[in-house]
Amino acid sequence: MAKLEDIVSLCKRRGFIYRGSEVYGGLAGTWDYGPLGVRLKWNIMDLWWKTFVDDRDDIYGVEAAILMNPKVWQASGHVDTFTDPLVECSNCKGRFRADKIDISKCTTCGKAGTFGEPRQFNMMFKTHIGPVGRLGFNDENVKESITGTKRGDLLDGNLVYLRPETAQGIFTNYKNVVDSFSPDIPFGIGQMGKAFRNEISPRDFVFRSREFEQMEVEYFVHKDNWQAEFEKWVVDIDAFLKNLGLPDSKIKKVEVPEADRAHYSQRTIDYEFEFPHGNDELLGLAYRSDFDLGNIARASGKNMEYRPKDSSASFVPHVIEPSFGVERAIMAVLTGAYTEDEVNGEKRIFLKLPHHLAPVRVAVSPLLKNKPQLGAKAREVYKMLKTEIDNVMYDDNGNIGKRYRRQDEIGTPYCVVIDFDSLENNDVTIRHRDTTKQQRIKIDELIPELK
Questions:
Q1: What are residue 318's DSSP bridge partners?
Q2: Is the confidence at residue 316, as pLDDT, over 50?
Q3: Domain 4-67+163-334: what homologous superfamily?
Q4: CB distance 317 to 293 below 8 Å
Q5: Using omega within 30 degrees of 0 as the cis cutoff, is the peptide bond preceding 359 cis?
Q6: Options 3.40.50.800, 3.30.465.10, 3.40.30.10, 3.30.565.10; which CATH number does 360-450 get?
Q7: Whole-prediction pTM value?
Q8: Per-residue DSSP letters for 15-31?
Q9: How many helices, marked H, and strands, marked E, lie in the chain?
């Protein structure tokens, strides 16, 4: 099992993930993705989109606005119930989630008996649209900014929220998609995008942060068929996790008991993964009944019924929701791929990433950097590969052993090396990441072999 500090160190050292605003001391709960991190992230998101949108005829993609009418969050219940219990230490003024710590003693200053009663803290970020006019920075508003959102704030026409989830943007576009495309039921709407939560205690690297991305589908079904469709989603999710390269031994499906489920749900499965900090939720699959569309119909006055093409009775669809977190997927992929072994008596760290997720798929190198003829031939091979293969890197920094170690650490499946024999025989050496074995191959056979 990789330790969290090993993952964090590799990500910083090799340009995957940096602390947000690091040059200014950082900002808790925010992270920046470096050149390799953003490519890994896109590869995961591209795979999800291809799997659940492009390769299916029954799912339509959307991209909803981050800023939405505040009525969205009233109708969904976020304004009143999207809260965490907050306690504040009277000694050091530290604030913590009451359900995540022992409140008998402050974990920061060590003082006992310094926590008051837990208060509910709304996790949505507020902002204002247009000229603000009256912000009302009086003591009462400052107080309420700590304890949560006042219902009276919704009377301010300038107030909006950064969305805490992407799902509501799907539900508000349900009627648009039905009117534009007349889909057969069951059908789904998928979306990837940013969400924001004012977490009291962001932690465990990118696992819980204040700015993150989600990949979600809302799948609309007839209420009589939800169980059969739910089981299909279990199979599809299992296949996707396998395609991410996640080992089955680290994944656990947890049937959420009735007492812990939302009141409108008859079944929810939490997929847990064995992260470095312990078993924790990777994604969720929930049956949401007609709760969301019913709320929208009541709050907006718009008809959310689906009219079948066979002229049978109209109905409000029920919903199955597979919800994935991008950052949690990244952490799971890195954790599952992190590997240590020995090569010639030396410790080797490498990321055993699936080839389709690796941020660099092929690295091309001259055996010696100071030999112009080798460099010229290596550049020629590099340009040839870039026309056919995504994410090819040219690497001539350091000796060949250091290049191998560096490419291993970032998960590059193949290193292609041009040596003096290449000049004579028009062939190259391919070095394989997982086994470190090398093979000789003609340059004109290189592209089909690597593909």
A1: 221
A2: yes
A3: Bira Bifunctional Protein; Domain 2 (3.30.930.10)
A4: yes
A5: no
A6: 3.40.50.800
A7: 0.89
A8: TSEEETTGGGT--TT-E
A9: 14, 22
